[in-house]
Amino acid sequence: MDKILLSHGSGGSLMHKLIRQVLLKKFNNPILNELADSARLKYKDNLAFTTDSFVVSPLNFPGGDIGKLAVCGTVNDLVMLGAVPEYLSLALIVEEGLELKVLEKITSSISFWAGKAGVKIVTGDFKVVERGACDKIYINTSGVGKIISERNLSMKNISAGDEIIITGEIAQHGFAVLSERKGLNLGLGINSDCAPLNNLLVPLLKKTADIKFMRDPTRGGLATTLNEVTQATKMGIVINEKSIPLSKKVRVAGELLGIDPMYVANEGKAVLIVKKDSSKKILRMLKEHALGRNASIIGEVMKSPKQMVILNTAIGSQRVLDMQAGELMPRIC
Length: 333
Prior knowledge:
By secondary structure, the protein is an alpha+beta fold. It folds into two domains: 6-147, CATH 3.30.1330.10; 155-320, Phosphoribosyl-aminoimidazole Synthetase, Chain A, domain 2 (Alpha-Beta Complex), CATH 3.90.650.10. Helix content is 31%, strand content 23%. It is built from nine helices and 13 strands. It has helices at 13-27, 30-33, 66-79, 100-117, 172-182, 198-207, 221-233, 248-257, 279-287; strands at residues 47-54, 60-61, 64-65, 83-95, 120-129, 137-147, 163-166, 211-215, 236-240, 271-274, 296-302, 309-312, 318-320. It has a seven-stranded mixed sheet with strand order 8-10-7-11-9-12-13. A four-stranded mixed sheet has the order 1-6-4-5. Helix 4 links the parallel strand 4 (83-95) and strand 5. The protein is globular.
């Protein structure tokens, strides 16, 4: 058999053979090897729990694939709450006719990036649907992590005067996926920034209590994330265009396609809102790690204008960055 059949999802011998020969081989650990319908986890501490589904098209894109994205997206959601990611579930919904080598490539990617992020796949599910009922493969991952002691990251902590840091260059993931999907030969070689952020941010959280809030600016990009903050806090944000890390390749792609990079998705960046008197120290610590090399302080939380994000442009003017109204780039994660 070199393709997935409906009978692979029937619960019978074909399904069990596939689970043992493809999935268990990639995610081997004592908890998963019990093949129970749930995992037994022992905890005494506060937990973070998240779930996410991944339907990206195409399955492979410059800098990543749907498997890498599933691990990194779930790991990063836990980290944003101040948690150390430990366990993931993995649910695969596969279209009848998918080539087995495609499934093996995706699960190999999941296994590799789970190892990089230091997490274990401990439970999961496998379903097969008829041809045309889904687009090749969809993935759902849930994650559990232990919240770092005395870290309570929340928008409720944010005050006027706090400064805003972005951990690196923006908009790479969205443009990488879009160019691959549309076959756009821009000659720019933009790769997705997809990466697990726990090795960058967990050590930082353990060293300082001056980080008030974190969020990964995925769908809707940096502008949408900042608007979410202003809507929740009833305060304003002013950011400086010159301070926003943006590669020349992304800048050119935005101009060619007429797309504002401020609204383009990221999968390996975080927005940090921190105490003003600690922002430079936190920035220095971020820059010590490869994933934070291009981190930058980009702006400040203000009492007014309330519930607005204002961009100080490079030419000295100001413009309002509104919340994204519609779906700029569907199926980028």
